[in-house]
Design a protein that fits this description.
globular; about 130 residues; about 0% helix; mainly beta; three-stranded antiparallel β-sheet
C-alpha cells in the first residue's frame, strides 16, 4: 500500500500547510559519476551535530510480470522504484561519494532524491 510521509510523519490526508521557517540550503551536483553534496544552515542551529544525507536512486518505466494472485498473467508498470538507498553521516554538512551503478537494462529513466536529517531524528531538514 502506498504511503506518504510529510515532515517525518505519515500523512493521512487533509490540508498541507507551507513550512513556517526556512531550513538552510541543500546543494548537490553529479560529475563524472561522483556526487558532491553540501548542506548549509545560515542560522547555525545544527553546528556540531551529526547530519545524515539520504541518497535514493530511482527507476522509472519498469514493467513487472505478475505470476500469482489477483493480477496473475498481467504485466504491471512501476514508477518511482527505489533501486539504491545510501545513508551517510557528516559533522560538517559535506558529502562526496560515487554514484551507484545504473546497469538495469529494463529501466527507461533514472532520477535521484536527496534529503538531510539530524542523526536520530527522521524528520527531514531539507530535500532536493
Amino acid at each position: 500500500t502506498p504511503g506518504i510521509i510529510v515532515n517525518g510523519k505519515e500523512w493521512r490526508g487533509g490540508r498541507l500547510s507551507p513550512a513556517k521557517k526556512t531550513s538552510g540550503f541543500l546543494q548537490a551536483s553529479i560529475q563524472d559519476n561522483k556526487i558532491v553534496t553540501s548542506y548549509t544552515d545560515d542560522k547555525k542551529t545544527l553546528a556540531n551535530k551529526t547530519l545524515e544525507l539520504h541518497f535514493v536512486l530511482l527507476g522509472f518505466g519498469i514493467k513487472t510480470a505478475i505470476k500469482a494472485g489477483e493480477n496473475a498473467r498481467r504485466t504491471l508498470p512501476q514508477e518511482f522504484v527505489v533501486l539504491n538507498h545510501l545513508k551517510l553521516a557528516s559533522k560538517n554538512g559535506s558529502w562526496s561519494f560515487e554514484l551507484p551503478a545504473r546497469n538495469h537494462k529494463e529501466i527507461k529513466r533514472y532520477a535521484v532524491a536527496l534529503w538531510v536529517n539530524e542523526r536520530g531524528n527522521l524528520k527531514p531538514i531539507q530535500a532536493v
